[in-house]
Each structure stands twice: as structure tokens, then as C-alpha cells.
Amino acid sequence: MRTSDIFYITIELERAWGLKEVFPKMHIVSAKSNSLYKNQKNIFIGANKNTYELLKDHKTQEYINENSKRPKLIFFKPTKKLEILAESLGFEVLNPSSQLNRKLEDKHRNYLNLRDNSKVPQPKSAIVNFDEDYVQKIIKEFSKAVIQKNFGHTGNSTYIIDSSKESFNEDLGALKINLGSRRVKISEFIQGDTFTLNAVVDREGNTYFGGLSKQITGVSELTKLKGATIGNDWNAGHELEQATLKQIELMVVEVGKYLHVHDFFGMFGIDLMVSHKTKQAYFIEINARQPLSASYHNQLSHKNNFKGLLTKHLEVLAQQEFEEAKSLEVNNDLNDISGVQIFTRNLYSKQLSKISNSYSKELPNGIILLEQDCESLPFNEEIRRLQSTKFELEKLVNLAKEIASEDEYSTVPNPSRS
Questions:
Q1: Are 248 and 281 in contact (CB under 8 A)?
Q2: Options 3.20.20.70, 2.60.120.260, 3.40.1440.10, 3.30.470.20; which CATH number does 192-411 get?
Q3: 51-95 pLDDT, tens per residue?
């Protein structure tokens, strides 16, 4: 297989950019342009819609067929609709199946399987129907609890409730209206920092890992969702104790074994919590796909002369090594890079928005600015991204806030978007 036969299909161009710098002959088919797209070869910007509509568009299909007789597709996150469409067009999909991906992102199933079949440490939890009478008792036992649906992103599927607050009964009532009889996981709240870790499991069951970063969430000037991730701090992992880092290494290897047993291969991420009090690391959830931090992590890995995990992911999917990275090895170090990236998300209601910005100051040296095409952007999707290996977290967040203060929003018509 040649890299020129590989087409990464994605809404966001940045998600594939970490591969494009290593494999310039690989193609990116994206729904949106951004400030990286300047006279770059092998990049096609198609219909500004979802991934399915992008691939369905005849111009996209023409581009793929004109550039390869044996096209191989990679998706950021495969779906059954995408797989059926690709097969009907004669395109091979390299990702693991969407059915397997869906199964392995079930938070409840993973909690039970890892609890019963591994030594992966997890917060005390119970899985119950939320309308049962004993739910209130469980929450009070934990004092402060985290409530999770089985699917969904942290920003829209996770709730925190505190039984010591005067508003507890009111808060619980509101959650019952929202969740009804839905089955949920109720977990003890761990006071600590949330980290994410990138990893790859190959087809033989070997696990590779790196890019441990602290998740940055809930900065009100950059997102309206308190739990939504707005950045990664790769410097924070360097401050963890060695015993904690060892726990995390053992955790990711155990999770890799679990995924391999279920026939998964390729890139995945795990979210974990490190307790402020005990320094214990607790597993939170698996993302059985490429994590959002993978692209920049891959770029920094190759700048340090190591094979990046996104590169390894491509090799595992393709079942071969490529000349461009054959001489490199994965570092297999939790703290293999240093750096920070911060996102600004669409703050404007839940309609599609057109966003312009009048910020005119020159950016400091050492800052990479990625501006999205913001002609038609849904609520909470990314507007821009700041990246740096030289600036500390606080400085980059403040710069992101300063730029975001110049954003101007206007509503655009809301076409159907599946």
C-alpha cells in the first residue's frame, strides 16, 4: 500500500495534520478549511457538512477516484452509515468497525468489564436506573457524586451533584426530570485533576503510549459547557510523582489488553483522574478512537525524532510500515513531550453561527494559531486553536481569552445536519 492511496476523511483539517507532515503524499479530505490550508498539495476541501455528506458529495468522490485506483479511507470516528457508503463506492475502510467502536465506548460496559476482569483502579461506583428510590441514598453515601450516561462526551453526558448543598433536593429533582428512568453510573467524586493519555494497541496486543496531558475544561470565555475540554497541558504530567506515573503505565497496558481481547486495534485514549489527596490514579473512561490531542502530539514527537502515536496508528491500520517513518521508534514515555494547546469554542446559542474576529495584535514568537473556517459553525464547535511549546498554560489561556473577546457572531440559516 502506498501513502498516496490513503485518504483521511474528516470535518476538521487539523485532525489529520499530524500525519500530513510525516506523509506528504497522503490525502486529506476535509469539510472545512483553516489557516493551515495554504497551497498545500493533496488536500481537498469539500462540502461544509458532516462526514457522511462530505463523502457522499460527487466532487469528493471524483477527487478520490482521480487520485487513486485503490483508495483506502480513514475516518476520525467511523459510523455504520459511512461504512455502507464507502463499500457502495468501492472504497476500503481501514478503521476497526463502527460496531466495535460503539461497543467499546459504552462507559457502563467498560466499567463492569474492567472491574471484574482487571486490576485497573476505578472510583467507587454503582450502575442503576436513575428513577429508583435508593439513588438518593447512594449519592448521599458518596457525599458528592458524578453521574454518567453510558454514551456521550463529558460536556453533555456527565453531571456532578453535591448532597451537602442546600439545593440538593432541587438539583436531584432537575436531574430526574432530565434523566428519567435512564440507566446511569453513579461514582464517588474524586477531588483531583483529569488527565488524558494517548495510546495505540497493535494487532498482536502490544500497547504503545505517550502524550499524558492535563485536560483543561470549563473556561467560561472559551466555552459555555462547564465540562467541555478546551485544551491540553502536556507540562502538567511532568509534575506527577513517580509512583503515580507507574500506576498510569500499568493502567494503560491493562486497558490495551482489554481492547485487544475485544479485537480492537489502532489508536485510543483514556481519561483518568489523579487524586489531590492520595496521588492515586483512577481510570475514568476509554475513547476507542483517535483522541483530539493526537495530531499536535504526533507533530511534537517527530520533531523530537520519535515515531508519533498517530503515525503508529496509521501503520497498524495499514498493516505495514512506511519509508517516511521506518527508522523511528515510539518513545513509550508518558511524558514524551512538553507543550500546551487551547481551543476557543462557539459560544453563540445552539444555532449555526458565522464568526469574524477583529484581533489585530501581532502574536508572540512561539505561538501557532489555527483559525477554523467559521462561515457555518454549530454551538460549541471549535473556532480556533493556540499551540505552543514555549508558553505556560496561564499565558496561553489569557491570550485565547483576549483574542476571543474580539469575536463577532451572527446567525446563519440552519440547514438539516445529520
A1: yes
A2: 3.30.470.20
A3: 999 999 999 999 999 999 999 999 998 999 999 999 999 999 999
